[in-house]
Amino acid sequence: MKLLITGGTGYIGSHTVVELLNNGDEVVIIDNLSNSKKDVIEKIKEITNKEVTFYEGDVKDKNLLEEIFKNNKIDVVIHFAGYKAVGESVEKPLMYYDNNLISTINLCEVMNKYGVKKLVFSSSATVYGMPKELPIKEDFPLSTTNPYGTTKLMIENILRDLAYSDKDWSIAILRYFNPIGAHESGLIGENPNGIPNNLMPYIVKVANKELDHLNIFGDDYDTKDGTGVRDYIHVVDLAKGHVLAAKKVFDEKGIDAYNLGTGNGYSVLEMVKKFEEVNNVKVNYVITKRREGDIAACYADTNYAFEKLGFKATKTLDDMCKDAYNFVLKNR
Ligand code: NAD
Ligand code: UDP
Fold first, then answer.
1. How far apart are CA 74 and CA 95, in angstroms?
2. Does ligand 1 have an atom closer than 6 angstroms to the CB of 122?
3. Residues contacting 38, CB < 8 A, separation 6+
4. Tens place of pLDDT per residue across the chain (332 aa)
5. From the CA of 198, how far away is ligand 2's center (Å)?
6. Residue 124 class from Cβ within 10 Å (0-12 exposed, 13-18 middle, 19+ buried)?
7. Catalytic residue among 83, 96, 148, 299
8. pTM of this prediction exceeds 0.90
9. How many domains does the chain contain in total?
10. Residue 197 domain-assigned (yes or no)
11. What is the torsional sign of CA 43, 49, 50, 51?
C-alpha cells in the first residue's frame, strides 16, 4: 500500500510511519512543522532504513494536496494533522476550528476528486465527554467540553455524512485514549514546547529537573486513591493500531469508530510511583486543586477494536515509563 500521512512528523504520526514502513508499506508525509521538526524524517530513516517522501506544507493548501495526489498513487490516507491543546483551544477557538475543520474538508474534497476514498482519522476519547459508565464503549453518547473536542466530534459527524452520501468511502475513526511513551530507540518521541499540559511529559520534565515538581490536580475524586484515572497506551501500540485500521479501510467499505486503549485505568499517583520505580528517579509532587473540566476516570472497553481490527495493546506501563524517559535522556 502507498499511504499519505498528514501530520506525519508529529508524535503519533512519526511512530505510525515507522510501523507502516516496517510493515512494507510506502509512505508520503505532509506536515507544516507547526508542532514538529524536520529532523524527524532523518530519525525515521535511521530507525527503518527506508525512504519516505516529505512535503513541507499545509493540509489546508488544496493546490499542494492536488500536487501530492497527482504525483503519488495514494491508496489510503491517515489524517493526524491538527491542533490538539485543550487549554489553547479554549483561548483561541477560531484557530482550532479553522485548522482542524478546514484541513479535513479540503483533504476529503481533494481525495474525492482523485478517487481516493479510504481514510483513517485521529479522533479522541474526549468525544465521550463525561461518561456515565466505565469502561467506555464506542456506542456511548458523544459530547464535548472544549473547542478541541468539538472539532473532533464535528469531524466525526462530517465523515459520517460523507460516508452516507457516497457508499464508496471507507473510513475508520480511531478514538485514542492517553498515548504516552516513545520509540524504544529513543530517536523519536514526544517533545512539547514550554510547560506540558499532559501528565507524562510533565513527569518527565520533573524527573529531568527541568521543572521543580508535579502539580497533581485533585485527590478527592471517587477513584482508588482520589487522583484521576486514565487509560495510558504506549504510542507504538497505538501506531500498530493504525496499520490494522489502514488495512481495514483498504479491504472494506463503510464507516466505523474504534477505541484505541488498553482497557486498564491507572491513577496519577500510580503513574508517579511506577515512573520512579522503573527509572530509579524521584518525582516530587504537590496536591493542588482539581483542573477545570477534568473527569474522574476514563478507560476503554477494548473488545470492539479487538473483534473488528484484531487490535490489542501489548506493551506494559513499565515500557511506557521507561521509553518516555529514555527519549528525554537521549535528547537532553
Ligand atoms: P502532534 O502535534 O505531535 O502532531 C500533529 C502534526 O500535525 C504536527 O507535526 C503538526 O506540525 C502537524 N500539523 C498541524 N496542523 C497542520 C496543518 N494544517 N497542515 C499540516 N500539518 C499540520 O500531535 P499528536 O499527538 O501526534 O496527535 C496527532 C493527532 O492525534 C491529532 O489530530 C490529535 O488531535 C490526535 N490525538 C492526540 C492525542 C494525544 O494525546 N497526543 C489524543 C487523542 C487524539
Ligand atoms: N494531571 C495532573 N497534573 C498535570 C497534568 C495532568 O495531575 O500536570 C492529571 C489530570 O488531572 C488527569 C491525568 O493527570 O487526571 C491525565 O491528564 P492528561 O492531561 O495527561 O490527560 P487527559 O486529562 O486529557 O486525559
1. 29
2. yes
3. 9, 54, 56
4. 999 999 999 999 999 999 999 999 999 999 999 999 999 999 999 999 999 999 999 999 999 999 999 999 999 999 999 999 999 999 999 999 999 999 999 999 999 999 999 999 999 999 999 999 999 999 999 999 999 999 999 999 999 999 999 999 999 999 999 999 999 999 999 977 789 999 999 999 999 999 999 999 999 999 999 999 999 999 999 999 999 999 999 999 999 999 999 999 999 999 999 999 999 999 999 999 999 889 999 999 999 999 999 999 999 999 999 999 999 999 98
5. 5
6. buried
7. 148
8. yes
9. 1
10. no
11. positive
Whether residue 52 is contained in a domain is answered as yes
The answer to whether position 193 is within a domain reads no
Q: What is the CATH number of the domain that holds 17?
A: 3.40.50.720
Q: Which three cell numbers stand for residue 325?
A: 524517559
25 within a domain of the structure (yes/no): yes
Instruction: Examine the residue annotation and report whether 148 is marked as an active-site residue of this protein.
Output: yes
Rg of the chain (C-alpha set):
19
Q: Which residues contact 91 (CB under 8 A, 6 or more apart)?
A: none
Cα 167 to Cα 123, 201, 240, 255: the distances in Å are 21, 41, 27, 9
Range of the domain at 139: 2-184+231-262+300-313
Please tell me whether residue 149 adopts helix, strand or coil conformation: helix
Residue nearest to atom 9 of ligand 1 (CA): 10
